[in-house]
Amino acid sequence: MSNETNLGRPLRVAIIGSGPAGIYAADALMKSEEAKEGGVSIDLFERLPAPFGLIRYGVAPDHPRIKGIVNALHKVLDKPQVRLFGNVDFGTDLTHDDLARHYDATIFATGATDDRGLRIPGIELDGSYGAAQFVAWYDGHPDFPRTWPLDAEKVAVIGVGNVALDVARVLAKTGDELLSTEIPANVYEGLRENKAREVHVFGRRGPAQAKFSPMELRELDHSPNIEVVVDPRDIEYDEGSAQARRSVKMVDQVASIIEDYAIREGKPGAKHKIFLHFFENPVEILGEDGKVVGLRTERNELDGTGNVRPTGESTDWDLGAVYRAVGYYSDPLPGVPFDSQKGVIPNEAGRVVEGEGVDKSVVGGLYTTGWIKRGPVGLIGHTKGDANETVACILDDLAAGKLATPADPAEESIEKLFAERGIAHTTWDGWHRLDAHERSLGTSEGRERVKVVEREDMLRASIENGANA
At the topology level of CATH, where does 114-328 sit? Predict the structure, then answer.
């Protein structure tokens, strides 16, 4: 690969989405030899007024160590080669034609914010919710409702991943336990009135197949108000499960923690319980008068390979609400190829492609990274590998002369464009102002910060004199 860009100017790259995936891509670009030789100029465009995506709006508020990733992302956005344009919606405020006119390459890094569907009867009942929507509510996402119905005393969470654990833990904790975090006032008021006393987490396979991380699983027991309960009959392994435990340290750790929960005595003083159920496959959400009243599961058993088969034994659980935490799903983007079955932008190593078979072709100048590239699996740090792969493709295409030359690559052209269209956008400096404002709100309450929820309030705190132009 040549280190010469042959552009006579910095490589201009637009990144749609300012979550970890987009910021890691910016970091990879700036660290490349090509950037050192010819320079790189990166503009990140974010639909929301604030950056950081999943870190700000997809991580439970009682996970400060995970939110510490923001410190590393800050260092990337502090670099002079990167600019942030928040409150800018791709497809309306910024179009494909705009990107082609002003940038050599565009990376789509919009992540996944919707819930993946679960096709069982009763999913449409009142009291049946997507976990992603609940997470957005308690994280103060500006585009979601300000209230949440929390009147069910017994609640189900379907899924055995970390999001399921987050939802279960937030539902089982008291509002006062979470008051020390950055949750806004409306979330605290909602959680303070939460009536849930039992949270039942259902997985269709066994402890060795659960997708929890050990740290998340242990955290369930940190609250003095929560007792974690596991039925000893769910501690079961076949040869496939045993092999998984021998081969993968994390699998063995998770299984060991679940075993400990199953054999221990009760937890005195704990008013709330989280039940972890394994080998229970949800087959129907039960309802009366249009509302959730229960969940029917079918018992599974291991088949020797680590997979399961149905036993025909069913159980009806008395429950007032059901949350599905079976995965996130990405939103399609206007004019961008999208695989609706997989929920991703079709790509080859990060290069966007369209068509199938002999008609499949690379869409020049368009790239993708993160969850919308490979699906919503893995931890936040895994998106670094995605970013490196995608950036390598951009630099290969640059060296091969495959990038089209934009008509107007000047940095100031985008700011002029937004001024002409009357688009009030936020900036990196604006984030610092919003950050300071949220921290000041927290200081008055003895907390690190209080998150601002309303979009207009975020814009007011971020934008000097009401507008950026």
Answer: FAD/NAD(P)-binding domain (3.50.50)
